[in-house]
Amino acid sequence: MGVKILTDSTSYIDKQVTTELDIITVSLNVIFGNESFREVDLDNNNFYEMMDIKGIPTSSQPSIDELYSKMKEVVEQGDDLLCIFLSSDMSGTYSTAHIAKDMILEHYNNANIEILDSRSNCMQLGFAVIVAARAAMEGKTLEKVIELAKDNIRRSRFLFIPDNLKYLKKGGRIGAANALIGNFLKIIPILTVENGVTTILTKVRTKKKAVINMVDTMLADIEEYGLSEIVVHHINCYEEARELANSIGEKLNIEISICALGPVIGLHVGPGTVAIAYYTEKNMR
Predict the structure, then answer these.
(1) Residue 161: Cβ-neighbour burial (10 angstroms; 0-12, 13-18, 19+)
(2) Shared domain check, 111 and 217
(3) Based on the domain organization, do 146 and 173 belong to the same domain?
(4) Euclidean distance between CA atoms 209 and 165, whole angstroms
(5) Residue 151 burial (CB < 10 Å; 0-12/13-18/19+)?
(6) Rounded CA Rg of the chain
(7) Does residue 168 sit in the same domain as residue 148?
């Protein structure tokens, strides 16, 4: 009997990594009117073409059937299960997973399922999942795997910069007047996730200055707490992400991975977004 790890599609972990570490994934959904699409089935380019035509969609949590099915497969194999999902303040995935767990326990009394709220998304969530999966592959107990995942969450940060404020306005993250003034004055927020919700770290004139500020924030964290792993995220702006990754790589003398963000996060912040997710050697919080 071992430990399996289940996460959701907003972790955006590279498929090769999920395969190597045997990470199980359930998909959130994107909804255009009466049409619903699983995030994992959507290509980014096609998604933004659809969005140009149909407008900004909404998103929804994975179906309870998919959650139940994935949990059942693990339990029937005799393994323990740790589920790590995006922030419960951002999605109903965490609460729905608890419903699915209760349904499992009605039929499998000895099932050992734990559900962890990552309090974030993207690779800030993804790193906790990867660390947990590595520990599981090493044969560590469920309790130890949970401990390591929680420890990683305390040592991680996610910083991101939208290209403009249109999508934040649509999602209610920023008021219409502020969005209008911000776009006119080219004011760009540097966003982060703390206590499970998106917050504004600071506001900067022009995206170029925002990127410099974001990198400086990361470097200050690394100087104080050390660095374990880092990834650069982007939404349909690979060249910009590559430039950012190369710049950071030169400063730290390491190679930086680049990872695209999918539609569920993209519909909230929009194409042109660049981001950094990383975790340190010591606790930041």
Answers:
(1) buried
(2) no
(3) no
(4) 16
(5) middle
(6) 19
(7) no
Q: Whose CA is closest to 234, among 198, 259, 211, 253?
A: 259
Please report, for the domain that includes residue 189, its CATH number.
3.30.1180.10
Phi, psi of 163, rounded to the nearest 5 degrees:
-75, -30
Signed CA dihedral, 52, 54, 58, 59: sign only: negative
Query: Looking at the 3D structure of the chain, how many domains does it have?
Result: 2
Do residues 226 and 248 share a domain?
A: yes
Instruction: Say if residues 104 and 72 touch (Cβ distance below 8 Å).
Output: yes
Domain check: are 136 and 275 in the same one? Answer: no
The answer to whether 190 and 217 are in contact (CB under 8 A) is yes
Nearest to residue 116, comparing CAs of 140, 151, 141, 74?
A: 151
Structural domain that includes position 140 = 3-27+62-154
User: Mind listing the pLDDT tens digit of every residue in the chain (285 residues)?
Assistant: 899 999 999 999 999 999 999 999 999 999 999 999 999 999 888 898 898 899 889 999 999 999 999 999 999 999 999 999 999 999 999 999 999 999 999 999 999 999 999 999 999 999 999 999 999 999 999 999 999 999 999 999 999 999 977 787 665 544 443 433 345 446 788 999 999 998 889 999 899 999 999 999 999 999 999 999 999 999 999 999 999 999 999 999 999 999 999 999 999 899 999 999 999 999 998
In CATH, what number is assigned to the domain containing residue 9? 3.40.50.10440
Does residue 25 sit in helix, strand or coil? strand
